[in-house]
DNA sequence: CATAAAAGATACCGATTAGTATTCTTTACA
DNA sequence: TGTAAAGAATACTAATCGGTATCTTTTATG
């Protein structure tokens, strides 16, 4: 029961990378098994079809990754405006897996698959909602502690910030350099600053 | 020379709709010719391959549409904060062609094709840059007339707003109703308000 | 009207797609 | 250690893909 698990996981891991860089529909099963050295028999032993594998990528690879790297830190934040900015700065300019050229894995998959496949839509919605709610909780805590202005609406802000992130990742694809990201981050900083109480 | 032009145009028009609703790579030439009642011979008479057709869709359908509906109004705006909001409100809640489920045509195509095809990337970049610069010009005019705060950075704001739009269109795909759009627009209004001089 | 070019129709091609059927090998455990 | 089930390998299928070759029809112009 050890080898089998690692086979399954290597399929998911490699598929995640291929889907991220090439899109879901453009990633063929033949490509996956070729780049993982897994045979078709093994692939279809672990997944009854391609979509089941795609859903497993969301639930077993993308979700845990996002939870550990972003949801958890947000839930522990005492300085939301600053921590949100740091997170975005990290995602856009520092993270070495998320290449500018390829955008955001969750954003890409949402755009491609949510109109086509209801199950994908639900899985991605869960992922996204969790991140948004974590951000809302962080903002609420910031309100309670007095750092954040009491008149802001957490849900509005969370949605606004996450939308901006997905959008700028799309802009990023159009440029060779990081200039879009740098300009975006400046305005994000100004926007987030404005959420904080002046006396802070 | 009349029928031929209309054949070509009907290919482009139908392709645009199919690409918008199904994605570029998922739209096959066979599907296009089936839904347009154009034969393969006619298709390949007008376009030497699929990508040439795709580029024509961007340049001859999407670009003029965007220019007339958004660039031009922005260039004529004397009240940028208000006009940008109205434009977004129209795009998200009123326009009947842009269905929530399918996102933004330019955003979709950018996400799918810019990592894959340099020519697509350039054509889309031109489209996007033009819109962004129109917004910057409108904001600059607003600054000059005193409506807009002199300390804001037009490029930052334009990029921030357009990113938000692309992002929220992606969010929209995940929900059945318009709630995401409504929440987003509230925060956008507050953000845009903050760009205006207080005495106004 | 003749004719050449423009425009369109039809049949086909090799490659690739997701998925299946069948067989072989490894592993767990009595 | 024997055996059944888990896991993996191989060979195949029908459908679809973008594109081509070849042929027919329409249109513009002398």
Task: Please write out the topology.
The structure is a homodimer of 200-residue chains.
Chain A: H1 3-22, H2 29-36, H3 40-46, H4 50-75, H5 80-94, H6 105-113, H7 118-145, H8 154-172, H9 179-193
Helix pairs in contact in A: 1-2, 1-4, 4-7, 5-9, 6-7, 7-8, 8-9
Chain B binds a DNA duplex (30 and 30 nucleotides) through helix 1 and helix 3.
DNA-binding region (chains A, B): 28-47
InterPro entries (chains A, B): DNA-bd_HTH_TetR-type_CS, Homeodomain-like_sf, HTH_TetR, Tet_transcr_reg_TetR-rel_C_sf, TetR_C
Pfam families (chains A, B): TetR_C_13, TetR_N
Tell me what the structure shows:
The structure is a homodimer of 200-residue chains. In chain A, 74% of the residues lie in helices and 0% in strands. Chain A is mostly helical and 200 residues long. Chain A has a domain of 138 residues: Orthogonal Bundle (Tetracycline Repressor, domain 2). Chain A is elongated. Chain A starts with a helix and ends in a 7-residue tail after the last helix. The mean pLDDT of chain A is 95. Chain B binds a DNA duplex (30 and 30 nucleotides) through helix 1 and helix 3.
